[in-house]
Amino acid sequence: VHKSKLDFFCKLGYGKQDICKVLENLGQEALEDDVLKELIRMGSKPQAMESQTQPSLLKLVARGSCSTAPGSKWLREDESDSSDYLRPVVIDGSNVAMSHGNKEVFSCWGIQLAVDWFRERGHTYIKVFVPLWRKETPRQDSPIADQHILEELEKQSILVYTPSRKVKGKRVVCYDDRYIVKVAYETDGVIVSNDHYRDLQSENPEWKWFIEQRLLMYSFVSNRFMPPDDPLGRHGPTLSNFLSKKPVPPEPKWQPCPYGKKCTYGNKCKFYHPERPHQAQLSVADELRGNTKVLLSLVKEGKYNHSP
């Protein structure tokens, strides 16, 4: 039991020292959910191993590292150019699968569609959380479709099973929502779900802000995974900026001037004038003064003859 719990929390990136300390305090039979709560309370941070052979180059390793090196940071695996500007993605597997299955079937194909959508955008850090009991032979009251997809995603280190076990014939399931929010928060990523996690919002003020600002909702339209173009509403960031670490400010959209060519405001006009794309926006009076100065200079130089 001790080894299985140690392995599980190591996969989440926690150090062996912190995990062992919590297990000593709570006892070896403590539920994984309680262990995670205690790790959060202690302020334990997930870690990643750093290369000892090449101190000048930072070597990135999988999140399954159990390093206890002081000051080490939880670095994204498979770091590449795209991960420099794209946020990590944490998918609520149960929510996505049930949504694709119309709340009747746990459709693993829905999870695959979501993963593929983010992959095509260039995201390199994608994690899907699903309860361990979904790995079992499905029962009649909890049907599952395309179950083999879960196995394939697990081999790719994308899918993570949250713990569950049976005690006296009764299934004890850990709260997978807490893992989803915790991992997304620690990696400064986004949560893909249609759940609002209201209970977790009230549990932790920092999580409340994070869930409000980083929750990406979605729809399935004819087997297409479709997040909204405005995840935080019409006045919020675009989908591209929402998923980026370094948002790009939108280009200003100029409204055409209602007066058109008859406008006399010149450079003081706040509206767009398509008729003068390469011309300084001057008022009519300024233009007349400018033309007069040019004519006077030409007359002085004898280059302008106004006689017929």
Query: How large is the count of helical segments?
Result: 11
First-last Cα distance: 108 Å
Under CATH, the topology of the largest domain can be stated as Rossmann fold
Summing up helix and strand content along with how strands pair, one would put the structural category as alpha/beta
Strand order of the largest sheet: 5-3-1-8-9
Note the overall shape. elongated
Can you give the helix content as a percent range? 25-40%
CATH class label of the largest domain: Alpha Beta
* Strand elements, count: 11
Q: What is the radius of gyration?
A: 29 Å
Assigned CATH architecture of the largest domain: 3-Layer(aba) Sandwich
Pfam family, one: RNase_Zc3h12a
Keywords: Endonuclease, Hydrolase, Magnesium, Metal-binding, Nuclease, Zinc, Zinc-finger
Zinc finger (C3H1-type): 251-276
Family: Belongs to the ZC3H12 family.
Explained architecture:
GO terms for molecular function: hydrolase activity; mRNA binding; RNA endonuclease activity; zinc ion binding. InterPro entries: Rege-1_UBA-like, RNase_Zc3h12_NYN, ZC3H12/N4BP1_RNase_Reg, Znf_CCCH. One of its GO terms (cellular component) is cytoplasmic ribonucleoprotein granule. A zinc finger (C3H1-type) spans 251-276. This protein has 308 residues and is of the alpha/beta class. It folds into 3 domains: 1-42; 89-243, Rossmann fold; 251-297, no CATH class. Helix content is 36%, strand content 12%. It is built from 11 helices and 11 strands. The protein has helices at residues 2-11, 16-26, 32-42, 93-100, 108-121, 148-155, 176-187, 198-203, 205-214, 239-242, 284-300, and strands at 89-92, 106-107, 126-131, 144-145, 159-162, 164-167, 170-173, 190-192, 215-216, 219-221, 224-226. A 5-stranded parallel β-sheet has the order 5-3-1-8-9, with helices on both faces. The protein has a two-stranded parallel ribbon with strand order 2-4. Helix 1 (2-11) packs across helix 2, helix 2 crosses helix 3 and helix 4 (93-100) crosses helix 5. The chain starts with a helix and ends in an 8-residue tail after the last helix. Mean pLDDT is 77; it is low at 48-81.
